[in-house]
Structure formats: C-alpha cells, structure tokens
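anyone else get weird line breaks when pasting these?? whatever heres mine. first is seq + tokens for prot A
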Amino acid sequence: MTPMAVTIKKGLSTYVTQCWRQAKAAKEPIETHMMRSLRQRAGKYDPEKLGAIRRVGGSLIYMLLSGARCRDAEAWLKDILVQPDHIPWDLEPTPMPELPEKEGGPQLSDAQIKDKALAAAGLMRKKIDTQFSEGGWYTAIEEFLHDVVTYKAGFIKGPVLRIEKVRRRVFNGASWTNVIENRLVPEYERRSPFNIYPCPSSSGIDDGYLIDRLTLSTSQMSALAGVPGFDYEAIRAVLRDHREGILQKQTSGRMRGGDGLTQTGHDPFNGGKDDKIEVLEFWGDIDGGQILAWTNGIADTDESLALLFEDYFGTPVIDPGAVYHVCVWLCGDRVLKVMPNPDPMGLKPFSKVSFEEIPGVFWGTGLCEMIEDVQTACNAIARAIINNVAIASGPQLERNVDRIIPGESKEMWPWKVWDVTDAQMSGAQALRFYSPPMVVDKLMAVYEFFLKRAEEQTGIPTYTGGGMKDVAANGTASGFSMLISQAARGIKNVVKNIDSKVIATSVERQYYFNLDYDKGIDDVPDVRIIAKGTSSLIAKEQQAIRRSEFLRATNNPVDMEIIGTDGRRQLLREAARALELDVNKIVPEPTAAQAQPESANTAANVEAQPEQKVNPAGDATSGGDFKLF
C-alpha cells in the first residue's frame, strides 16, 4: 500500500468514526423507545417498573395486548402484500414511451412503438421477478413487516452484489453431472432498525450519511480476504486482533438482554456474543476539499494518485468544490474497503417505512408506541384485578392477642376451636372477621374502555384477528364485510406507504441496476413502476362482493340465455379461483364436443376480440409479445 493510500484511509477512518459517534449519540433515545416496544410486544416489564411492582408485592401479570395487536396487523399486511402467486408490483411503459433508436433501422409507428415497449417492459418485469426470487426480496419483505409493526421503522437493503455457490445440472455429452459454481447475485435483506444509524439531522434515507452496523463471523471476515476491493492486510490484522481479544468494539456500552429478552433474531444486539466482528458500513458524501487536504504533502506520482482516486472515489481528478459518494467499511480504526457508490445518482441501497410516518422526521411511530399508554393502563388494571381477587378471596382476621392463650397457633383451618380468656376483663371480641369487597366488575368495565381505545388508536379491531365483538352489523356476512372495509382505512395508509417508500423504490433500484450493469439489455423503454399493495387490498374487498352479487343476479333463465353456459362457467371459475380452490377440478373446461355448438359464433367474433394480455403472475395467455395490465 502506497503512503498516499495509507493517508487517505487514515483520514477516512477519522471521518467515519466521528460520524459514527454523532449518529450513535443521537440515536440513544430512539433505541430506548425501541427497546420498550420490544419488551412491550414480548410481554415483559421494563427493569425499573418490574422493581417497583416487586417492592409493593403486587401481581406480575402482563396483558399481551400489544402482542395481539402487532400479530393481527402483521398478518393483515402479509395477507395483502405476500400472497401466493401474486406480485405486489408491476412495470408498464409510460403513455408516450421512447425506445433507443438503432442507426439504419426501420421507422416505427406509434402503435408499433407501444407494442414493442409493452413486450420489453414485460421481459424486464420477468427478469426483475426472477432476480427478486433468487435474491431474497420476497423473504425480506415478509420479515421486515415485523419491524414496521413493532419498532419505529423497518428497512430493506439491496441490491447488494454477493457471491453465492449454486448447484446446477450439466450434460457433458454422455451423462448429467452436478456442478457447483460461484455466481454474483444481487441480493436483498431485512436490516434491523437497531443496526441503522442515520445522520442526526437526516429526514430520510438519502438525506445525509447513513451507517449500517454489520456483524460478521470470523469465517465471513476471512472470506473477504482476497476479494477485489477489500484490503487483504487490514482484514488479516482485524482477524489477528480479534483472536487475541484486543479488537475494540464499535458499540461501547451497548445494551444487553439482562431482563431475559433474547437479543438474537428480531432484536439486533446478538445477545452480546463476543464471537462476532462488528463492522461499520458508511454510506455518504465526502467533500473534495477534505480529500485533497488528506493528500497534501504526500509525494506520489500523478499516475498512481489518479489510479487511487479512480479506485476510491470513481474519478482520476478530485474537484475541491464537489462531493463524492462513497461506501466505506470500517472495523476498529482499520478501513477494510473504500469504493464509490455504485449508484450514479449517489442513492443508498436502502428503503425505509414506518407504521405511522411523521413528515420531516427520519424515525416514525410503531404500533407498540401508539398504544403504550393503553398497554400501561391495561396492565395496571389487570394487576389491580388480580390483587383484588387475591385479597377478597378469603376473610381478613383481626385477633386480640390479649385474649388468646399464649402459645396458641396462628394458623386457621375449618372447625378450629379458639381458646380465649377474659383475664384483663376486656369486653372486646377475641376474633373479628372482615370480608374485603370484590370490585372486579367495575375494574373490568374500565379495562374494556381502554381495550376499545387500543382499537381506535391503532385502527386494528379485535375481529380482524378472528375475535368477534358484540356489534350489530356482524349478524350478516355483508354487515361484517362493511366493518372490515371501514377498519381497513388505517391499514390502507400503511400499505400505501410501503408501496411508495419500499416496494417502488426497491423495484426502481433493481431496474436501473439492470440498465447500468447488464449489457445484454436492449430496447428498454421508459417505464413507470406500479406498486399494487393498496389496489390488491381494495380488489380483495370489492371484487369478492361484486363477484358474488353478479353470480346471484345472473342466476335466472333470461340472463343464462344471454351469457350462455360458457359465460357461466367462466364466472364460476373466477369465483373458485378467488377462493384459492382447484379450479380445474371444480369447474372443468368444456370438452371439444361441448364446445362445438358455439364454435361458429366464436369464429365469427375473433376479429372483435381484444388482444389477450399477461396475467398478474407474468404468464402469457396468448402467443406473441408480452402485454401488461
């Protein structure tokens, strides 16, 4: 490594460390809120609250209200966004698509351009869908919904190029053999909100720098040695320091699960395990003047300096008035990797959304935080109920010790005989019994009030999770459907935010990634990305009702004569498909003999039939080019 490279990396190490300290200090109150939300969903008291309850000897019951609401909301979101054979996004050409013009090629009409744009968009859609399936995008979406509901935000990261081993079958001319090869795959993953540290003044992902705290095993760190872009000597030094126990952690004084909470899986602190190496992945801008200040006074040839700048910042010449988008890996005080941001626009490979967005603020509000006051009240009422039941379950006894024979046992049992004396001529009773009042019914009324408040504050009613409330409308299927539709207003807003801030942005990043790095893509039009989560919810609510109404309305001789047997069959097939039934078994397609009487009429109307399009699953329902809805 040249002296210039050492100097630049030292400057980067100092800069990233300074940013990390600022971001970590600014995030401490956010982490406190998120830890409370984690305990709230898990049904555990904060250590301070738990100590206060134990000091007064009260009940330790914790009502799992937040956990139930979170599970219902998470299941609702998964039912909308993670459906079998459903892709929650789409690509379609813009109203006036533009295609790359080939020199000497034929002049295309507007109709031909639109048809070609539809076909190209369909191919790109299938390519992105394949990349999402192989890169774990659909799994990441399903996992990150837990964070959206529980914490102050949820994050999806990608596309990030990673090398993975792939097994495939190869025919060598005589037989099939298994071949294992390394393949570069754009991958996606859910990132824990505990591991994301934005710039203190940031209001969004691309506003200021962002730090992602990575935890790598020793084998993962060792595998990076020799990978292009990583500093081999720095990685070896990190492994040596880790092995000798002298590697400084990035998160000094980090929180641990002392209250029994597991810190693995959905919680990011990894249980305080010491076998992980923590790395800071910095995404942000470096001022050109700062870069030149780091290189001042270092004697390197112009050629080597230009190559170094090109490798680290993507340009051979540094402009002091410009900013450069970089990604830096820092472990301890060692820079493991420096590279320019792969996105030409300097956008970061992250998407973020909160259950309740707050304009102009990076961290929103999670569902647990929305009902924290209700959860506290319900816990207090539940403890009061248990304590009242315990106190009122038996009589309280007052015992006049002056009248009890010395040495008499204080224990009570049925039919016990108490021996007393009147030596002090006292007229007071030797024993007096009290029955504390049972006020559970009054406490339950207060509890029901707060339970109703939880439904109103979250927009997640109890009956969405299967619990039927005593409401007048639930006597009929249509009335209950109206209740669900009204309740869906709140969840529609969450789905809309996920559509625009996560699904659309990640599809857009993958789309431009393919344009920038896949040289085999030609004739790609201007496209617009359509996230279909909200429309899917509306469709599921409305289409099911309208389809059933249409089936009932047309079930009469007059309409049957108009739509015919084939029309009725298609209606029944669509209804069965909406119920996720085996359509071909329930409503089979007609045989050739059954279809013969209507064949002439069908042939006469071929020219009037619209061109068939690609179904939502991406399969062509007719030959020729792909068409999108």
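and prot B, same format (seq, then tokens)
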Amino acid sequence: MFFEDENELDEQTKKERERIEKATVENVRADFEARREARRRLESGWVLNMNFLSGNQYCDVSPFGGLEQEDKTFFWQSRRVFNHIAPTVESRLSKLAQMRPHLKVRAFSDESSDVKSAKLATGVLSYVQERIAMDETIAKATMWSEICGTAFYKVVWDEKGGRQVAVSNSGEPVYEGEVSVTAVSPFEIFPDNLAAEDLQSVQSLIHAQAVSVDYIKEKFGVTVEGRTLEGADAKAYSEPSAGKMPYEWFGKTTSNMENAEMLIERYTIPTSEYPEGRLEIVVGNKLLYTGPLPYVNGEKGTRVFPFVKQDSMRLPGAFFASSVVDRLIPVQRAYNAVRNRKHEFLNRVSMGVLAVEDGSVDTDELAEDGLAPGKVVVYRQGGKAPELLNLGDVPSEFSAEEEWLEKEFALVSGVSDLSQSSTPVRVTSATGLQLLLAQDESRLSMTVGHLNSAVREIGRHILRLYREFAGDTRLMTMTGENKKVQVHYFNAGDLSASDIVFETEEITSPQMKRETLLKLLEAGVLCGEDGKVTKENKVRFLEAFGFGSYENAQDITALHVAKATEENLSLVEKQVEVDEYDSHETHVLEHTRFVLSEEGKKAFEKYGTSVKDRFNEHIKAHKSALTK
C-alpha cells in the first residue's frame, strides 16, 4: 500500500509539473506576442531604413503598419533612384572602424595586488578579443546600430569553446570553455518597457530568434517538431503576422524558413521572489529551461542580463535609438524628386513636344516613331504643319535645389564631402582641410562615445565570466612588449572586475596619430641629447607608420632589446655573462629600466639583496665594455 501511494503521488506530481510548464509556456508566448505587437511601428521604420539603404526608395509605412509601394501618378514619370544614403552610411562605418576603441585596464590603486590584477585583466582582454574575432563582431553590431539605431551584444560562456583538454568517460571531448560575444539585431530584442532608456531600467527582456530543429537538438538535447516560418516570422519580425503583403528587404522578398521553430528566451532581473533572477526558454509548446539567470555578471556579484546595448543617436524616453538613415530619408526623397523632375524636363527639351492640328497627320504613326532624323512628315493639304512647342531652358531652381540638398546630406549625416574623397572646391589651404577633418571627428563623437561605453561594458562581462568559469589554472598565450609570444598560467580568482577600472585608449584616427608624431618629431621631442632620433624611438616611429617589420629586418636593435629582457628574467635566479656582440648601450638601458620598475622592486623584496647585486655587477660589465 505504501508503494501504491508513492506511485500515486509521483503521478500527481508529474501532472502538476506538466500543468505548471504548460502555464509557463503560454505565459511566455503571450508575453512575446504582446511585446511584438507593441513594437510593430518601430519595426516598420527599421525595415524602411533597410529598403532606402538598398535602393528601394519608393515605399513608405502604411497607416496600418507594414510597408507599401508608392505608385506612379502618371505612366511617363521617371522613378530613378539616386542613392546618397548608402555611401553616407559606408563613410560613417569606415570612420567608426578607424576610431574603434581598444580595451585596457587601469589599476584601481597603487597596491601590488591591484597592479597585478590590472595587468592580468588587460592581457586576458587582448587574448580573448583576438580569439573570438571581436573586431568583426563590433563591425557587425555597428552596422545594425547605424541603420536601425540600436544594436546588442550577447555575452555568454560557451562550454564547447576553447581548447580540448580531456575526453569524458563516454568518449565525448571536453573543452576548457570560452567567452562568446555575438552581435544581435534589434529585431530580436523585446523589452517590457519601450520607454526605458537603458538596460538597467528594464525589468524583463525577451530574445526571440528563429532556429532550426537541428540547432535545438544539438544545443538543448530536445527534439521538437519543426514548421515553416513564413516571411518575417523567420526573423522574429512582426509585419506579416497581421496578414500584410510581403515587403522588400535589401531588394529581396523575405523568404521562408523550413523545419524551424521560434526560440524564445525571457530574462527577468532579480526580485524579492526570485533573488537570482529568472530565465525561461521556450521552443514551440515546450519549456526547455526555467531557473535563475545563468551568470554572475553584474556589479557586486549580482546577476543581470547577458546583453550590452549600443546606440547610434539616443532619444529621450525611448529604449531604441534613432539612426542617421531616419534623418536622411526626407532629404533622399526630395533629392530623388528634384533629379527626376529635372531629367523629365531635359527629355521634353531634347525630344520635343509636338503640336498638331486635329486630322492633319497620322497621329498614331507620329506617336510611335516620333521625329526621326530625315523623317518625311505628310500632313493634310491646307492643314497646319506640326510644330515643336518652345519649352524654354531648364529652370535654374532645379540646379540650386539639387546643390542645396547635396549640402544637406552632409549637414544631416555629419559626414562631409571631404570624408567621401571629394575635396571642397572653396577650401585650398592645408589648415582648412585639417579643420574640416577635425569637424567630422567631433560630429561623430557622440556615436563614438556610445560605442566606447558598449565596448567597455563588454570587457566587464568578459572578465566576470572568466572569473566565474575559467577555473583554477588557465593557459593563455599573448604577445609581449617585444613581439615575443609568452605563455601564462593564471588563476581565475585573480581577475577582480570590481577592483579595477576599465578604460579605452584615446579614440583618434590613424591619420591624427601620425600627424601628432610628425609634429613631435619636428619639435625634437623624440630626439636624444645629441639632437638625433634614438634607435629605440626610430623603431617605434616606423611601427606607428606600419613599417615595423621593415625596420626589424634592417636594424637589430629590437633583437638586442628582446635579449636584454630575457636576461632580466634570468638574472633574478642566476648570474648571466656579458656577450661580446651585445649592444651594451641598449642592454644598460633595459636592465636599468627593469631595476627601477615595480617588477624589479618586487623581485628584490622577494629574493633579497643578492638579486640586486647581480644586476649591479651585470650593468657594470656592460658599462666597462662601453669604455674599451
């Protein structure tokens, strides 16, 4: 009887669990549909931006949402597209790529632990960014933000990433794990509050994407029955859900996705009911996961969304930002209209408009063939001969309006003609051209600032994920100061994202950096006491101009610096003899630099005065060789 009651209890528990799972699935799906419906108008604007970028510029958002094509008023109207939006966006993307920030970490204080942690964190960030192709991800997300206004980064821990370290009992490979950073389009992100201005003001966030059933099977180990996702549903868009006609996207009609299903992830920040937050993953009618947020990736050990938001031009009281394409669309419409009307007028002037007396000629033949050179026009005897109407010259207003609209493209976008490889005719001095370049840089400063903030936040997420999952011993290969590959073992506990300060390098274009170096060279700042450029500065100067490999092939200074650095590590443990072929001047500088550095002071404190004595003897030997 006891076992029968236990079986009955298990059955009841199973039914209760199924009821809760069904209710959760229904709640998540209903919440997703409600958020998608609330965001319908915004998505129509994004799709309109994509159409204008691709060249489909005779469409607009209908009063019911969705896009509709604009018809010609007359059959003879010209409907050519003179796309200025695409090169403008390409110019902005190119400038933003040149001004892309690079992460580095500054110590929170002068304590040795903070200095060591900052140095390790900087190395980890450089190592991770190279392995996961971070630059490509940033470029993709920046493209989304420039077109739609907002883009997102999803920062998670991939258990199957990194190197293979072992093999499980079942024969499956075991990997060390790696951070995964992917660019997410705004179409896939659904906040609970469209008036929130940042992720910190959002209570719940949904990430919805269309995936194949094979992906679900591999990722979650669950088999689901796929279906055909039609049109925009295949991208989690909301347009065709209301039965609207398919729209153009980058010149192509949205396609269907076979054997797929919507993967819906709903993230909820920690509350009193759920102190560790909540994550619910739904595919079709199945609940794949429900539990706390997976990562401790917030301040002070809290759990937050694994997303980073990047904006182009922020709007007050709006979660999704505006883009430069939004501002350019009215100018582009006016420009197309002016150019087409101008061409229509030119066609009338060049081909002419005939006036004929009724019944005097065969109008059908004349309409079909026109007035070809050498054509014989036969008209009724006594009638009036056909004549061309005098249409006059092309009005000057067309050219004036066209010129003003071209200037307005630069005014609205913040990208001048100079950035598009077209030197202004009125500007001839080098100072004027430099001022124009500086003006372009300043007009992009807000967008660059948002990019800077997003990259800095990604760095925080990366270090916190490494601290949580990297383990006690982690192998990392990185390039040292002398371009030599170094192997490091570190403990994830040494990465303290709360005791270090994230910053990015000064965001300037390569041209500005080279111009600054040339000015410093002219001022003599890079020269030694004899007024000549030192060999060390010469190497660094050529590296800044992209000729580092050439200099290293011609000059052995870099090799002497690398040898002296290796000797510094060896001198901590044993005495090192001075070689006759050493560049003694370079070695003295490098050994002295180590003695005065924090690393050298720590070595003296740890191993005693014997280390300091070895360095003194070694430096004396180099100086003695110099006097011979």
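btw re prot B: Residues 454 and 625 are 53 Å apart (CA to CA). The first strand starts at residue 59 and ends at 61.
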